[in-house]
Amino acid sequence: MSKNNSAERCPWCLGSAAYIAYHDREWGKPEHDDRMLFELLILEGAQAGLSWSTILNKRDNYRRAFDDFDVRRIARYDEARVAQLLADAGIVRNRLKIAATLQNAQAFLAVQKEFGSFDRHIWSFVGGQPKQNRRRSMKQVPARTPESDAMSKDLKQRGFKFVGSTICYAFMQASGMVNDHLVTCFRQAQLRAAQ
Predict the structure, then answer these.
(1) What mean pLDDT is predicted for residues 118-128?
(2) Residue 120: what pLDDT?
(3) Is 31 a catalytic residue?
(4) Mean pLDDT, residues 143-167 taken together
(5) Catalytic: 169?
(6) How far, in Å, CA of 43 to CA of 97, rounded?
(7) Which residues on neighbouring strands pair with residue 178, listed in sequence order?
(8) How confident is the model at residue 167 (pLDDT cuts 50, 70, 90)?
(9) What domains, with CATH codes, occur in the chain?
(10) Annotated catalytic residue: which of 44, 62, 77, 123?
(11) Which of 48, 103, 134, 155 lies at 20 to 30 Å from 162 by C-alpha?
(12) DSSP string spanning 14-50?
């Protein structure tokens, strides 16, 4: 958490200490580690139809269940492992989302092979630098953008699942490809200065 507990934050994070910690430490911070990018992409897809707090509360369980998001191991999961995952109450037990995680691992490895890293490819959708937005209210934050539309189209063509434009934009926000902290939030200026 921020040293200044009274600091103004984006209103979406004020529901719990876990939400505040995620907001203050991770959300919007530029991420370039492939393992972490894979984790964020999978978690954003797992969120589809659910609240982010549900996924955030299950994040440690996801890390345990999916071998700390080791993409090479996940790409080799078999039906027996899928059955174990479907029986794991610590994660969202949705067959389509679990199958998508396995398929996405294989597609992710193909992107790494083609571009040298997933990071190199995915950050190309914002020209390699975080897009600094200056939104004053949550009403101004879009659910999707032309960049997320392009990312979604590209990832779908490469075989990824649960990568619609809205999921891609949430991923872009989480991984710091865009800085969507409101201008009133202390993190907006911190992340802008860090760039």
Answers:
(1) 98
(2) 98
(3) no
(4) 98
(5) no
(6) 10
(7) 131
(8) very high
(9) 14-194 (1.10.340.30)
(10) 44
(11) 134
(12) TT-HHHHHHHHHTTTS----HHHHHHHHHHHHHHTTS
Q: Out of 19, 27, 52, 62, which one is annotated catalytic?
A: 52
pLDDT surpassing 90 at residue 185: yes
Percentage of residues of the chain with pLDDT beyond 90 = 93
Residue type, 163: V
| Backbone region of residue 146 per phi and psi (left: phi > 0; alpha: psi in -120 to 50; beta: other values) | alpha
pLDDT given for residue 15 in this prediction: 81
Q: Is residue 44 among the annotated active site residues?
A: yes
What is the 3-state composition of the chain as percent helix, strand, coil, each rounded to the nearest 5?
A: 60, 0, 35
Distance, in Å, from the CA atom of 167 to the CA atom of 175, rounded to the nearest integer, reads: 12
